[in-house]
Amino acid sequence: MKYCPKCGAELFDEATICPKCGVPQANSTDDSGSIGYGFLGFCIPVVGLVLFLIWKDVKPKNAKQAGVGALISFALGVLLYILYFVAFGFLLSVDFLA
Fold it and tell me: Rounded to two decimals, what is the model's pTM?
């Protein structure tokens, strides 16, 4: 059992708010490491990076998912950029129109 830091009421371990005074409990954050944050970070890497930096101490599992999604998106973008210019350079070096 745990106790409310404000009113001292006895709480169940799973309680997210105090039933007596209504104060949210400190450990009531949702840190499930949902894959949805990974997809968000992949689709919008800047948001994934910001979420990682904001949540790295408060919600480490969610922060990791968002950061990994952003990192994968960035790496894939760089890889596609390199492949594009390698293919484009190859096509320019080959005289395929003559």
Answer: 0.64
3-state secondary structure (DSSP) of residue 65 = helix
CA distance 32 to 58: 12
Per-residue pLDDT of the chain (98 residues; tens, 9 = 90+): 778 888 888 888 778 888 889 888 776 457 788 899 999 999 999 999 999 999 998 889 999 999 999 999 999 999 999 999 998 888 777 766 55
Question: Which residues are registered as beta bridge partners of 11?
Answer: 2
Distance of CA 47 to the CA centre of its chain: 8
Token pair of 61 as six digits: 């599992």
Instruction: State which H helix or E strand residue 51 sits in.
Output: helix 45-55
